[in-house]
Each structure stands twice: as C-alpha cells, then as structure tokens.
Amino acid sequence: MQGSTTTRITEAEKYVYTRSAAQRITNREIEKLEIWRYCCLVKPRNQRPTFISKKSFKEDFAQSRKKRASEIGVTHQKINTKLFTVNSSRDIFHNYSVIAKEDHLYCDCPDQDRQRELNITPAMCKHGYAVLMTLGCNSLKEYIQKNIYKQI
Ligand SMILES: [Zn+2]
To answer: Which of 67, 94, 129, 139 is deepest in the core (most CB within 10 A)?
Structure first.
C-alpha cells in the first residue's frame, strides 16, 4: 500500500490542525477538515474546499493562546519568585501555577499537559503567555534571549 490516503495522522497533528483553528484562520464556519501531508484541506460552509498551510495552523496555535492570555489575571508570588498564579479564564475560583524556567514556562493546566504528552515543544498555553506579558515579553524567544529568568 502506498499513497497519501494511508498517511497516518498523529494525535499531535489532531491537536494542532483543528476545525476551530481553521475557523479562526478563514473566519468561516468549517464543515470538514482533512489533514494532508503538507497542508490541510478545509471545506467552509457554502464555499469550495480550499487549502490552509500547516504553517498557518502553527501560527494560530500560538496566536490564539496569546490573544486569550491578554484577558487573564496574573499574580507574581513574591515569596517564591519563579512562581506565578494565573487565573483560569473559565472558572474564576480556579488558578493554575506557572513556574518560570530558564527556557520555558511550566504550567499545570490540561492544555500544557496534553502538549507535553504529545511532544509539542516548547509546550505553551495561554497562562504561559499571560506570564510572558506580565514580564514584558511578546514571545518565549524574547524571554530566553533577554535572559528574563535571571532577573525575576
Ligand atoms: Zn496553562
């Protein structure tokens, strides 16, 4: 057997190339999504199928989390300076703990748990991005380059 029809789709791919991501990218309701080898085929409602690059999905993966991060409250725990308490956006009585590490921000939320499980690295969730913003960084790359870890 050969050909693209037998391409195995990993759980990690299913976590990144989603219909909700395609909806954000196209601003259309997506009826169908197929993960192909080099891109994704999507069928927006009342429209012809179209392709979305995998790069666009990867950008959306970070961008959608960054966007949601701006609405989340962050408390810096001064006693243990590497620890931040981040409010859950869904449940105001629930918090997540984000620990600043040298090259990433560890969070105990289900999103980061899932990303680690799927080997999506560096695992980044909206809580991690919320902490990055609090620290004056726009990206994890900036956080690493400016060596923010040493300054907090
Ligand atoms: Zn998180």
So the answer is: 129
Q: Tell me the C-alpha distance between 123 and 139, whole Å.
A: 13
Please give the residue that has the higher pLDDT: either 3 or 124. 124
Cα dihedral value 148, 112, 98, 55, nearest 10: 30
Neighbours of ion ligand 1 (CB under 5 A): 107, 109, 112, 125, 127
Residue 94 neighbours by CB under 8 Å, 6+ apart: 87, 88
Specify the DSSP class assigned to residue 66.
H
Ordered by start, the domain boundaries in the chain are: 10-59, 70-151
Give residue 92 CA to ligand 1 midpoint distance, Å: 14
pLDDT for 92 equals 78
H-only helix segments in the chain: 11-16, 19-26, 54-69, 110-117, 126-134, 140-145
Q: Would you say 124 and 115 are in contact if contact means Cβ atoms under 8 Å apart?
A: yes
Ligand 1 centroid to 93 CA: how many Å? 15
The pLDDT of residue 3 is 47
